[in-house]
Amino acid sequence: MVARRRIIAGNWKMYKTVPEALALVEELKGLVAEMRDIDILVCPPFTALYPVKEALRGSNIELGAQNLFWEEEGAFTGEVSPTMLKSLGCSYVIIGHSERRKYFGETDKDVNRKIKSAMVNGLIPIVCVGESIEEREAGKTEELIRRQVVGAMEGVKTTGAADIVVAYEPIWAIGTGRAATGEDANKVARLIRQTLAEVFNERIAQEIRIQYGGSVKPQNVAEFLEQPEIDGALVGGASLDAETFYKICQGAAGGVE
């Protein structure tokens, strides 16, 4: 069995002005400074990426963006390119979050283009997949997850594919306070890994890290991370408070509250 390094990512969504973002990371840096056995990253809004990167220098926290456009430059008003993100010091980028799909009409094809562009430009994609409550209750979870994974990874080269992170985020659990059970999340994570093996190969599938996201809290993070197929968490609201996010990281690192 492949030993996969745990990864905890904070998705700040459309929260935090620059002063608020800097205050948060300054507090967080001190709290997680001794955690060297897991990967920790924060994904601020675009406006805070550069100042947050400067504030993170010398720390063990990495920087991610919440989105990108697949072209490197051009007449695409309001978009941000992978080369711009790389120049700001980003290591990761979230792609295909359910809120992007829901509010901005992102398709599996869009997600696929973004993944390829991110990888060409040295960014590690955190690829989000997940089903709605209607799809879940209709028994379509497996069909939907397989379609999203296959669509996202179509034509993606095997070189570097093992670095990709996949985040299983059941839409019905995002921001609702209603999390999946560890057992349910692990079942879907296993399906994701099986699908990745079909798309790439078994070795790459075993190396790719799979996160759970959806109302992750200090109180429930251990339930997910004790599952064999789950390697981390993509944290939303709970990442907006340094102490709360620290406790989640602590749980991932094997600590106690």
Net shape: globular
Q: Largest beta sheet: what is the strand line-up?
A: 1-2-3-4-5-6-7-8
- Low-confidence runs of at least 5 consecutive residues: none
Stated plainly, the CATH topology is called: TIM Barrel
**Beta-strand residue percentage:** 5-15%
| Rg | 17 Å
Mean pLDDT: 95
C-alpha end-to-end distance: 29 Å
CATH architecture: Alpha-Beta Barrel
The gist of it:
This protein has 11 helices and 8 strands.
Structural account:
The protein has an eight-stranded parallel β-barrel, surrounded by five helices. It is globular, with a radius of gyration of 17 Å. Strand 1 (7-11), helix 1 (18-32) and strand 2 form a beta-alpha-beta unit. It starts with 6 loop residues before the first strand and ends in a 5-residue tail after the last helix. It is of the alpha/beta class and 257 residues long. It has eleven helices and eight strands. The protein has a single domain (7-252), classed as Aldolase class I (TIM Barrel), CATH 3.20.20. The chain has helices at residues 18-32, 49-56, 82-87, 98-104, 108-120, 133-137, 141-153, 182-199, 202-207, 221-225, 242-252, and strands spanning 7-11, 39-43, 61-65, 92-95, 124-129, 165-168, 209-212, 232-235. Helix 5 (108-120) packs across helix 7.
Using brief descriptors, characterize the structure shown.
alpha/beta, TIM Barrel, 11 helices, 14% strand
